[in-house]
Amino acid sequence: MPQFDFLVIGSGIAGLSYSLKLAQYFDERKQDVRIAVITKVRADETNTKYAQGGIAAVWSEDDSFQKHIEDTMVAGDFLNDRKVVEIVVTEAPQRISELIGYGTRFDKEHQGNEYDLAKEGGHSDHRILHFKDVTGAEIERALLESVARFPSIEIFTHYFAVDLITMHHLGQTVHRYDTHNQCFGAYVLNTKTDEVERFLAKTTMLATGGVGSIYQSTTNPTIATGDGIAMAYRAKAICKDMEFIQFHPTALYEPGKKPNFLISEAVRGFGGILRNKKGATFMENYDARLSLAPRDVVARSIDSEMKKYGDQHVYIDVTHCDYDKFVDHFPNITAYCKDKLGLDLRKDYIPVVPAQHYMCGGVRVNEHGQTNINYLYAAGECACTGLHGANRLASNSLLEAIVFGHRAYLKTIENYEAAKIPDAIPEWNDDKTTHPEELVLVSEITRELESIMSNYVGIVRTNRRLARAMGRLELIYKEHEELYRQSNVSLPVSELRNMIEVSYLIIKMAMARRENVGLHYNSDNVASK
Ligand code: FAD
Ligand code: SIN
Fold this sequence. Notes:
Layout: E1 4-9, H1 13-28, E2 35-39, H2 47-50, E3 55-56, H3 65-75, H4 82-101, E4 128-129, H5 135-147, E5 153-157, E6 159-166, E7 183-190, E8 195-206, H6 227-234, E9 239-240, E10 245-252, H7 265-269, E11 273-275, H8 295-309, E12 314-317, H9 323-329, H10 331-341, E13 350-359, E14 362-364, E15 376-378, E16 383-384, H11 397-415, H12 438-456, H13 463-486, H14 491-512, E17 515-516, E18 527-528
Parallel strand pairs: 1-2, 1-8, 2-5, 8-15, 14-16, 17-18
Antiparallel strand pairs: 3-4, 6-7, 7-8, 9-14, 10-13, 11-12, 12-13
Helix pairs in contact: 1-5, 1-11, 3-4, 4-11, 6-14, 9-10, 12-13, 12-14, 13-14
């Protein structure tokens, strides 16, 4: 018998919203089930918690689904799956109403009952629901509090999923395009006891978030090491669109700091203006939409402006904005700039620089969140649904996670009972030793990996840089595989293994993409889409 009915790897918006739906469903039917949610550190340490700007949905009478659909397609350079875009945009209001039902607060207009809808780059209308500039923390709080009301959900903190359990563990050979592969749960390291436990489950949901840690500069917290994508790829899941790495144009410039604090795109939506280091505006030289062009355009423009003058950063100027209103909307950003950099935003510009922010690709799923491995679902940032195409529109990520969390839940309850867990699944085999140099090697290889990805697989790529990245990656892959084979499983060694694997996928897919589209820009490519 499996230990759990459902295993959910990840406690961000995707994992928690999916778990909540399952728990509610079985609770209403008075059916006992066990839903395990595992998270590699604390429950709330997720990309979700750091989301600032908000969540996009058509909410006002002036706006329309059609406009949100077109904005999403334009941002994605029309590489998006239009059907998926239509699904996500039209289901958005219902899913967000559920978030509100779970107790999530969104800001309302002053003295009114209407939600205060912000605007961000690439959006043709005001449609971003937000809670100050800490929307993600508010959503995460509400979801965790709601989850706590259901005894069927057990949260295992400091549990690290090492590998998915599939037919390979029954001694069978399965290829990537076979249709009979099945997931039975995961091998999970309890990082407090250093023991690997089998978490067997009829259905497994991957909700493991992003990959930012592979870059020197990223807005992502350190948990973002691409584990779900790497585990799924090893288990023979199909991954897609990994070359589309989104760089947020405006992370705060704080040399040596990782992760980078974000200056939300909503700041530009509020009226913030980009200026170069000389204080001059420059977006008019790049795009008619100026500071509110989609992110790929703004990030490349800033990159080009910095290279032109050899500058380390540009600025956002909010000195002309109504200060009291600014502080009301952006209390966290104002306080951070003041406390860490001593900036007074009434007179000082904010120094900003692009930083890795989001993985548009990931584990390929269909419109029900199903991967090509039976009983393995994926949602949130680790999944590639087709919504984003070549570039994600601002504030569509939290939205995608709840829409696909819901759709995956519907498919799960339809299918899960048919799943059979074989008795013959082996325990984790760990007869290796602890390598004395392990930690030193891990930090050296990690630094090397970050430098390869940042220098050769950044905003602007070339054939030579990509080839160099692949050559160097192969060397560190070999070095690290040896370390992995010799050592007892541990969090740092496994995370680095995953980071190397997702980097490999990114470089491979970037080399294969011969036209410049969305976030993929290779100056040797002659063709643009
Ligand atoms: P996450 O929230 O990242 O959760 C991942 C979970 O998986 C964590 O619990 C982690 O512990 C767990 N996990 C990972 N690997 C393992 C493993 N091996 N074993 C066990 N557990 C594991 N998007 C928007 O739409 N609007 C915004 O305003 C916005 N602002 C952002 C601001 C910042 C600074 C950042 C970093 C992102 C922002 N995004 C925004 C993007 C958005 O926040 C994320 O894409 C989204 O929250 C991802 O949610 P998720 O549930 O997929 O993953
Ligand atoms: C931001 O607040 O700029 C982040 C929004 C997003 O990533 O969608």
